[in-house]
Amino acid sequence: MKFLIAGLGSIGRRHLRNLVSLGEQDILLYRTHRSTLPEDELAPFPVETDLKAALAHHPDAVIVANPTALHLDVAIPAAQAGCHLLIEKPVAPQLGLEVERLQSLADAAKIKTLVGFQFRFHPVLERVKTILDAGGIGRPLHFRAHWGEYLPGWHPWEDYRQGYAARADLGGGVINTLCHPLDYLRWLFGEVRSVFAVTDRVSDLEIDVEDLAEITLRFENGVIGSVHLDFFQQPPTHWLEISGTAGLIHWDNTSGAARVYYVNEGGWDDIQPPADFERNDLFLAEMSHFLALISGQEASRCSLADGIRSLDLTTAVHQAAALGETLDLFQ
């Protein structure tokens, strides 16, 4: 199969390396040459700087890894050309007619789609989902997700002020950039009934987007909880805790492990990731799934429609914060 990668920042290059490690070699790059990373690893691959020219190579699949605000500029022409799509999260900065247009195009052409929420491929979170689905801690009642990470430390090779996460014009901000918990909570609990949020720019970071979000969610199944996101915490932490009628689960992204307390047994069970587990394993599993998806071996684990539901939620978080009101969703 022929692949086109649009956007060669850190995530685009990660996808490139993973494709190669999975045995794919027919790869074309579409880029604007604005990346601040070294050029050496890109040298073996053909490059186009015009999207129409890139799509004229007739790629089977396009990986959309450019800044969030530019996703649809690539995804819609790629869908019109009949290409399967792996789109980095979020699908777009917010819901709109162009998002609906992309979904219509994908449906009409039977395009296989995957949205890049790689935490759905975390081996320990997969175990957590299995436990929840089986009623292992009874009925879930409450959760707390926390992700704080210092933005200038993400890409030390570049000026953080120029990165997409720091800029409103590129679809940045802590809600869009760190939206993974909003997605994996939907994956674990189902759809959200209502959302309330407070957002602000409170740190000394030189950015024009929010760097803090406190979000309260009520799910259709009755579980209630909150999500904290920030761009300034040092050292970074990312964890999830879920309380149920018959137990508790605590997952820590730093170690990758989870601890589960079972009330009936009166003790803890530790769930460890594989001994050689590392962060790239999530992206590698995601890419392996994408290859299986477009070859017809598997159904999408996060289709465009699913990614749009997560985008609906992030859009609602922005709206709830702007209005200072609780918003009802998916009615």
Describe this structure in words.
The strands form two sheets. The protein has a nine-stranded mixed sheet. The chain has a six-stranded parallel sheet with strand order 3-2-1-4-5-6, sandwiched between helices. Helices cover 30% and strands 25% of the residues. A hairpin with a 4-residue loop joins strand 13 (258-262) and strand 14. It has helices at residues 10-21, 51-55, 71-80, 97-109, 123-133, 174-177, 180-189, 280-294, 304-323, and strands at 3-6, 27-30, 47-48, 61-64, 84-88, 113-116, 140-148, 192-200, 212-219, 224-230, 237-244, 247-252, 258-262, 267-271, 327-328. The protein has 331 residues and is of the alpha/beta class. The mean pLDDT is 96. It folds into two domains: 3-117, Rossmann fold; 119-278 and 301-328, Dihydrodipicolinate Reductase, domain 2. The protein is built from nine helices and 15 strands.
Sheet bearing the most strands, described? Answer: 9 strands, mixed
Low-pLDDT ranges: none
Widest sheet: strand ordering: 14-13-12-11-7-10-9-8-15
What is the share of helical residues? 25-40%
Average of pLDDT: 96
Look at the helices and sheets and give the structural class.
Answer: alpha/beta
Distance N to C terminus: 41 Å
How would the global form be characterised?
Answer: globular
CATH superfamily assignment of the largest domain?
A: Dihydrodipicolinate Reductase, domain 2
Strand content: 15-25%
Number of strands: 15
The value of Rg in angstroms is: 20 Å
- Our count of domains comes out at 2
CATH class division of the largest domain? Alpha Beta
Question: Architecture of the largest domain, CATH level 2?
Answer: 2-Layer Sandwich
